[in-house]
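User: Fold both of these, please.

Assistant: Here is the first one.
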Amino acid sequence: MICEFCGGQTRTKKVKRQHWLCGRLYIVENVEAEICIECGERYFHAKTLDTIDQYLSLRSCTELQTDL
């Protein structure tokens, strides 16, 4: 993959991702991403982000609603 910002090559790595859902910040570890080796820009596949949303929403949005 080519970086949209600098034109550098990317490599697949596992990274930490900050992810907001239902007004809460979550740190998700070991998320696969394409990382530009030149500028460090991160690219996440839409399927990966959808999976994170589904996993967290099953747990946290329900808990958040019961806290109100």
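And the second sequence with its predicted structure:
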Amino acid sequence: MSYITTNSKIHFTPHNPNKDDIDINDIAHALAHMCRANGHFNSFYSVAQHSINCSLEARAKGYSKDVQLACLLHDASEAYMSDITRPVKKLLPQYLDIEERLQKAIYEKFNISDVSPDTIKEIDDALLYYEFIYLLGEKVFDDEPELIGKPDFTQRDFINVKNEFIDIYNQLTSDVQIFKTVGIDGCDGGWMIAMLSNSRLSIERYNRIADVLDAHKTADKFIIDIPIGLADSREEAAHRPENAARKILKGKSSSIFPVPFRSVARAKTAAEAWNISKELNAGANYMTMGIRDAVNEIDIFLQENETWKNVLYESHPEVCFALLNGGNPVMEKKSEEQGIEKRLEILEKYGIDRVDVTQHPLFTKYRDDVVDAVCLALVGKFAVEGKSATIPIEDEIKADATGIKMQMIIPNL
């Protein structure tokens, strides 16, 4: 047999490639399954993830879309002929000849030309250097190369890596507006995220908010169900959006909890938090204390990462579901089957395929968190399309003492 069968059922001949048979989905699928370093890294790290990091590094360095695309596809030949380690490859001239012709055909297929091989090699080698340090604890070069971006070397789900590879390809090649939004909801021991990119939905769970934002830093909008912008006094707290949001949730306003003051969030123990709240007459209740750690994690992250201030936006799923439901709050509880069903019906009206939600492995254990995260990702999409508003209205938004706006993003259809 002189051909291979690709994931899309194409019979492909690597040594005599037909450009019409080269398919971006096959490339993304295969590279996402292939491990770098011949499988010797401490955790699985795919060729696709390496290629994504190379493309993002080219973007961080300010290179053109052509260079970014060339970096994304610089190892695409491996999707059709696998890879051989560098020491062995240089001893196989026929392999190198086939690889060169195949890679040339791939670049021609995707209209990549006039890109300096030296530029691609510089970025490729820089990622190689830091991959070996992070994933094997070894320096492969004497001189430390420059790295502008913050590549993700963590072990990631194959499907999400494949989807990101395709998303970046679409962003670099399409004249159609490509959007990527991330909805974030707190869950037991971490954060549930839904990533919406055009019609594609991905769902993931992370332990830390820093990991969420680092993994999805190229997204257009980030919407989270956690208070952002913390008051230090009752006077400042009056500028928070909770009171206005409660008016939208008539008959269900208790879904919106009192927000801890910053000093309450920072308290080292629950007892200390209660004492501070009483001293400041902060109006905290047990629900406030239940979200205190998550609020504190977000606030500390924002204080330590100034560029994320007023980029990570607050919202509230129940407020959003009400507005997406014609202004009518969803009275059924999320903890009950009927409540989940009602919210899925609302999401379906706006293009979310319930199968993508309910068939995801995380849905079984984190049902309400997944649904809330998807809702927030959808709100992010509306924001990208100019179909959002804020609570309070823009002219009335105030910032907290650290410059973070105290607002909620809501759909405005």
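The chain has 19 helices and nine strands.
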